[in-house]
User: Which sequence fits this backbone?
């Protein structure tokens, strides 16, 4: 064996022959093509099957336009709420020690283990007409279930771990030394967060917001339970796609689905850009020479 072979093996990080690596790569690419690329292409193909005019008409239809507006509205409300909660929860868990910290961490992970349908049923039990607070809400003419507030609550529940879960390990890895130094120098809590903590977590924060927004726009299970499927009022885009498909309006259904897929692709591109910037920032930070202490 030549001296070059061990060097190439060490650089590859594996001792398997090349054909094994290429076989695994081929299987992975085939899986991606079969289960991701091909279905995505089928969505756009079916959406444009009757031409661009039918595609545009399906999106301009009043119920479809109402579903698009409602989806964007729910995301515009749920994502900022989860942004505030996620930053606060990550700050508390990563920077402080207190009784009940493990319980709070468990609550953050709760939506990952609870079915979205169960989450929707919980809100119906609480705020429905025969729920715990239903009679009081009816007396005061407040509608939550089968209305926009219920959809927002369900979306907030299923999406609130995304931002917190991106920030907690990042903040824990960074430690508290810089915040403590800022406080010693006389900075207030807000100044410390704005000038010290936020610059260190900004890319992780953007990444979490992107994931949260993608899930908010694509949520189906919890929203389906609390929405009531009222056309033109409480149907989001995923619910509208289901209704159109059940009514055998396949072109219109795939047209709205293609818009959701397009939003997902844009989200993926932004996510990839943020990951690239985050990795580049980490490499640049690691290559900076250590500062010399001043006397």
Assistant:
């Amino acid at each position: 064996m030549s001296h070059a072979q061990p060097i190439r093996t060490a650089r590859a990080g594996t001792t398997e022959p090349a054909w094994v690596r290429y076989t695994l790569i081929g299987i992975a690419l085939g899986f991606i093509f079969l289960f991701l690329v091909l279905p995505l292409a089928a969505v756009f193909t079916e959406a444009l099957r009757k031409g661009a005019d039918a595609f545009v008409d399906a999106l301009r239809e009043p119920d479809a336009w109402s579903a698009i507006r409602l989806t964007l509205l729910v995301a515009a409300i749920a994502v900022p709420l989860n942004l505030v909660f996620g930053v606060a929860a990550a700050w508390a868990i990563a920077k402080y020690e207190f009784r009940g910290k493990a319980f709070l961490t468990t609550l953050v992970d709760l939506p990952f283990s609870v079915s979205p349908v169960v989450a929707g049923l919980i809100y119906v039990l609480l705020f429905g007409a025969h729920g715990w607070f239903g009679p009081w809400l009816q007396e005061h003419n407040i509608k939550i279930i089968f209305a926009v507030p219920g959809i927002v609550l369900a979306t907030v529940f299923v999406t609130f771990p995304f931002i917190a879960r991106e920030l907690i390990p990042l903040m824990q890895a960074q430690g508290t030394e810089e915040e403590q130094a800022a406080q010693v120098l006389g900075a207030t809590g807000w100044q410390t967060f704005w000038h010290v903590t936020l610059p260190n977590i900004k890319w992780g924060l953007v990444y979490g917001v992107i994931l949260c927004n993608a899930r908010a726009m694509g949520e189906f299970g919890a929203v389906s339970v609390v929405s009531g499927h009222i056309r033109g009022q409480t149907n989001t885009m995923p619910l509208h796609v289901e209704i159109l498909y059940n009514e055998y309006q396949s072109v219109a259904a795939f047209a709205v689905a293609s818009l959701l897929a397009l939003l997902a692709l844009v989200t993926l591109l932004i996510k990839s850009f943020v990951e690239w910037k985050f990795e580049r920032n980490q490499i640049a930070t690691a290559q900076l020479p250590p500062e010399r202490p001043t006397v």
User: Anything to note?
Assistant: Residues 291-295 have pLDDT under 50 and may be disordered. DSSP finds 14 helices and no strands in the chain. The radius of gyration is 24 Å. Residues 250-287 form the longest helix (38 residues).
